[in-house]
Design goal:
Distance between the termini: 28 Å
Strand content: 15-25%
CATH class of the largest domain: Alpha Beta
CATH superfamily of the largest domain: Type I PLP-dependent aspartate aminotransferase-like (Major domain)
Number of strands: 16
Structural class: alpha/beta
Bound molecules: pyridoxal-5'-phosphate
Order of helices and strands: HEEEHHHEHEEEHEHEHEEEHHHEEHHEEH
Number of domains: 2
CATH architecture of the largest domain: 3-Layer(aba) Sandwich
Number of helices: 14
Shape: globular
Radius of gyration: 22 Å
Largest sheet: 7 strands, mixed
Length: 442
Amino acid sequence: DKTSNSTFQGLHRSAELFGRGQRVITGGNARLSLFQRPHPVYFAEGTGVHLLDVNGNTYLDFMNNFTALIHGHGFRPVLDRLHHQLELGVSFSGPTELEVELAELLCGRVPYFDQVRFVNSGTEAVMYTIKAARALTGRVKIAKLEGAFHGSYDPVEVSLDSAPANWGSRSAPNAIPYSAGNSQAVADDTVVLPFNDVEATREILERNRDKLAAVLIDVLPQRAGLVPISLSYLAFLREITARYGIVLISDEVMSFRLSFRGGITRFGFEADLCAFAKIIGGGLPIGAVGGPARYMLPFDSTNGKPLVPQAGTFSANPMSMAAGIATMQSLSEQSFQLFDDLGEYARSSLIEMFHRERLPYSVTGMGSMFRIHLRAEAPEGYREAYAAAEQQRKMEILIRALQDRNVIVSPTCQLCLSTPMSKDHIDEMVTSVREATKMVEA
Ligand code: PLP
């Protein structure tokens, strides 16, 4: 039994590596949002749904590198393409056939994509959509949803985890910089919208309509609770942005996982520009911007310097393109139907177990993604999903207890599926969650 507790070898090799890391890497390791008290687990290998740590412990991986690994680890078609490309060359100072192939594949799937451009991360993708929106409109301000995470570009590192005392009123949230490295002046150009609240959002957008270049949304914002956007809110945002010539940007770095044709399209809508990443790189670094040709025009360098120059030493590098092609070719409409069914099974199994055990916990999510909340009522957005110190302490105990029971989840207890997963893996995870909660409630 690969995931049995009885085979637990301890974590001393991870502890040692963290000790070495602390001397030469600030913070001991190069990731921020990892569960790491007293130290992170150092992984050595991944196969399918399993991860092996440096001590030889095997885990069920429900994190999949923050949702990027949609086929899990060591997916054969990706390995084969990468081995082949490795021999041909890992990066060139010019384009390859591979970028055309991946672009054709993506434009063939997402109905409103005429064109895409490739970058190296979700952060970069979001940054370029905002720059394009500014170039297209001649305006500077952007609006984002309260609590939604969009990567590390200054204008979007706003209203993420400030203390509740600084949030401002529900209907008019404050724009607080998340990083001490950002200026308040930049944050002042970001308008924060109350998620799923049409009337309050209408008032804010009307007030700023002549200054807004873009409204940036995520149809399933993770940090804001992994609560899906409401259809009426999305319909309203689509209509008001079109009316005032504001660019509607859909950040699908995570939510591109929601369907064969992307995130916003699952809800029956189209964005003007889309920033996406993660799954389309098959586990290698990637980001992309996509949209109708007229919205992609700022990047066009056919006649010289474009309005928004977009370069990058590793943009569209052959390895990421090769892994991305193999990954996306291996996803069909049916893959996403299976994700919906298995995701529903996971959410209902967890909810049933919480009821049965009389645990005051709830579950949110959609498709292949779900999140466990240590509160009885499922959150409606960022303010309810925000973990107070006591809740945060309990969450850390839960995540550590899950790790000790060989299940890896994100630090906010978000889980995601990969194609090699089955109901058996879900059942195993639910059993581990049930056992782990005993530690939390102890
Ligand atoms: N946008 C969303 C919705 C994300 O979830 C993330 C990362 O998790 C980003 C942007 C940033 O992407 P990256 O980490 O590739 O820079």
